[in-house]
Amino acid sequence: MVVRSLAGALLALTMSALVMLARPAAAAPFVYCSEASPEGFNASLFIANTTFDASSRNVFNRLVEFERGSTKLRPALAESWTISPDGRVYTFKLRPGVAFQTTKTFTPSRPFNADDVLYTFLRQWDPNHRDHRLSGGSYEYFNSMDMPKLITAIDKLDDLTVRFTLSQPEAPFLADLAMDFASIFSAEYADAMYAAGTPEKIDQEPVGTGPFQLVGYQKDAVIRYKAHPGYWEGKAALDPLIFAITPDAAVAYAKLKTSECQLIPYPNQADLPAMQRDPDLVVTSQEGLNVAYLAFNTQKKPFDDVRVRRALDLAIDRDAIIAAVYLGAGRKAKNPIPPTLWSYNDAIVDTPYDPAAAKRLLAEAGYPQGFETDIWALPVKRPYAPDSRRTAEMIQADWAKVGVRAVIVSYELGELLKRTKAGEHQTMLFGWTGDNGDPDNFLYTLLGCEAAKDGANRARWCDARFDALVTQAKRTSDVGERTRLYEEAQVVFKQETPWVTIAHSVVSTAMRRNVENYRIDPLGGHLFYGVDLAR
Questions:
Q1: Average of per-residue pLDDT across 109-120
Q2: Please, which contacts does 129-132 make with residues 24 or more away whose CB atoms are closer than 8 Å?
Q3: pLDDT value at 15 more than 50
Q4: Residues 329 and 198 grouped into a single domain
Q5: Best label site of 191, 223, 264, 422, fewest CB within 10 Å?
Q6: In a shared domain, residues 70 and 159
Q7: Mean pLDDT across the chain, nearest whole number?
Q8: Crossing angle of helices 187-195/114-125, nearest 10°?
Q9: Domain total for the chain?
């Protein structure tokens, strides 16, 4: 009896083991060491790449998108589109049968359709829309590009056709719609949350059509995603996907070496040689579509005087910054757009390092003994700013030599962006990675007069000559004419010096060798659909 029972038990254990072996092993998580916490999960409300990575680039889709790893447009939620001969009417045929994500609090009753497109854009465009002021209602990109005036109508022609009518031709409009602010939300989810008395949840617990859906978020610690099983391009290979928020690049590198992270952004330049020698790691690098700069708040004295701005530009030893901060992975910037972007004006003569000339200009402007100011520095690494604090310290030392005494100010990223948007700073170290491969995204979005009112223009600079040139360039599709206008605008920029242009950087990413098919995004994003882990 005992023998038979023991034999039976052994048989049961054997069968159990075979069943377990027959089951597929649980997928290993893919962990991305993100450099900071997102400001939120609605990209239309913010401007930081950290936020876009956590929301729009992985959770949402847009009508049109950029092919992964390039600036070439491809159809996405719109299968096709037509543009009227006068360049003012864009008609989009929408992709049928696209599923929204299902969450614990929301189950969609229908696929994506024209109502979702209208909800997404009317919320930003129409000040009387029910949700326009939701979550602060600050649509920085939308306003910086003057979309409220550009768009005159958004119409639903049928469930799968939407028409945008513009006040005038807009050459970069299609590329603009591939940007993060244009991520498509579920109108049905918005209505459900409004009815439940929790409308802000649409911005905190997003529902999109994208390859990954948010599962949970612990601020300053972790964001968890799972693959969207009904994704219209096919379920993502990575499941689950985890963002481990790791602001310290040295800590991220340590996690990468022990496989706690599979991929890290913005590694310390000094660590790259060791990474490249490690047989378990792969480093990818390419020249970034970016610029790092110091913006003067031109609405505050003494920076309303161009002589002061020019003086402080002359006082900065940018070669020293490139050597000490970028460690050879950057080039000195003389223009507000990178040299890899069409219409770059290489004929412009760069500002030299000339402290003596800086002192003369300051005296001419009425500041022979200098003055006191601030330098706001980013608290996190960016592709264009490997060490904003160190850069600020070097500028602080350079300005002290000409009598300008600066204190360095910094806040958590979201707070810093909020305060500088409100104009609290006197000077600010900042930068930009292009969103769509068009010069307009730098010159109009960052330096136009509309962007100075409620947008990304941290210099709060409005110059009538410059604004007329970049506005005219938007209105024609002739690339030759646009190039001429942008080249002339860069001359005005250099004369007026709303920024000190500092550097254009090389962008690097480090990953475990078993990461497959990851591509650096020239537009600064980290996209994980199409990526896999070798098993």
A1: 98
A2: 130/194, 131/190, 131/194, 131/199, 131/202
A3: no
A4: no
A5: 422
A6: yes
A7: 94
A8: 70
A9: 2
